[in-house]
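User: Thanks for the earlier help. One more: Putative GTPase ArgK. Can you show the sequence and predicted structure together?

Assistant: Of course, both are below.
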Amino acid sequence: MDDGIARRADRIAEAVRRGEPAALGRALSLVEGGGALGNALSARFRDSAGSARLVGVTGPPGSGKSTLVDALIGEWRSREKRVAVLAVDPVSPRTGGAVLGDRTRMGERSLDDDVFIRSVSARGHLGGLCAAARGMVAAMEAAGWDLIVLETVGAGQSETEVAEIADCTLVVSAPGLGDELQAIKAGILEIGNILVVNKCDRPGAGETARDLSAMLKLRQGEAARVPVVQVSATTGEGIGTLAAEIDTRLAATRRGPPGTVPARPSPDFGGYVCAGLPDTEDPALAALFRRAASDPELAQRLLELAGSQKKPSGR
């Protein structure tokens, strides 16, 4: 790695760890964009992965995820919790950037020094997140945010990547979206630690909740005990109950002495790198990528090579 890049990465990483918001914003942009400097920063933040509690929020378009996240932030702030949000938005077909609906719905929260909100584009990445989501979360953790919300794009049955990262995953439904008819199918509903029926002040909410509860009865063991919570993100109804369920889930996943936080499922650096590498039919390259998934040093080298060959974006 170029010494100049290494020094720049060190300076930015140190500023992020000091809690400087501008440095975190810069680091997130660099990690999202990749390249030699972004990849060097990813390496410096990987030791922070798993140090915060991460709440994933997913569900189909129109279920009110962003409004729900805004309501939860209000509840957490009333308890003096500091909250960071990484919201993945649909990609704009014209610019390739994010359609910043999340910033619109959470605009007032950005004025609070104890709330940090970042919207990013999915950039065509499948799974409901963006390819750099793990690295960006690690940067937020390095900055000292101990409660991070990861909101996916409007997700379908197969977009379940958030469950691999989050400590607690909310799957948000709403009456009239047809989710009750899809409840018995494998997919997104099965990854939820808490099933949320938003817009409970609308007709059909009770029926949706009953259908989800009936679906849960078909499961075995822990999967059958997933709570179904009805809320109205616009009126605040049920938000306190939902926050309490989240606290219960997070406490149940905490291991070790009080005050410690376990590493989340699959926070490995090699796996993060390989998720952003291109698919290949070359057997030798495929074998190399598989090896990199369990070899952080090899994964870092692949990142550096990919960054050195990346063409300038022109921006």
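User: Great, one quick takeaway?

Assistant: The chain is about 40% helix and 10% strand.
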